[in-house]
Amino acid sequence: MSKITFVEHDGTEHVVEFEAGASLKDIGVGNAIPGIDGDCGGECACGTCHVILAQEWFAKTGAPGPDEEQMLSMTPERADTSRLGCQVQATEAMDGMTVRLPEFQM
Ligand code: FES
User: Fold this and answer.
1) Which of 24, 29, 33, 48 to mutate to test the pocket of ligand 1 (most atoms within 8 A of CB)?
2) What CA–CA distance (Å, rounded) separates 74 from 19?
3) Neighbour tally for 12: CB within 10 Å
4) Residue 104 C-alpha to ligand 1 middle, in angstroms?
5) Cα separation, 93 vs 29, whole angstroms
6) How far is the C-alpha of 104 from the C-alpha of 106, rounded, in Å?
7) Per-residue pLDDT tens for 38-80?
């Protein structure tokens, strides 16, 4: 089983298993990770699933689409490697990925 590490703003790490095809939002919420909400259920309409990826992993997830980019533009703590977790489908190639969470969601 593949694993992703979610890192809270205070540095607390949560290592969780995932299956390919799930979104980062679903993996985080499904494992009750503090700091990722997903209020709109994954419709790219709330921005509460903001995650920040390391550069090497960001490159593997691809660029945000136009709707995602618009939501990210309103997101506090936006970084160059920010994504909305609901718009990133996990693949087996993401085994070992670290996902940083902002201090605040929108
Ligand atoms: Fe609402 Fe991702 S869950 S934008």
Assistant:
1) 48
2) 30
3) 12
4) 14
5) 21
6) 7
7) 999 999 999 999 999 999 999 989 889 999 999 999 998 999 9
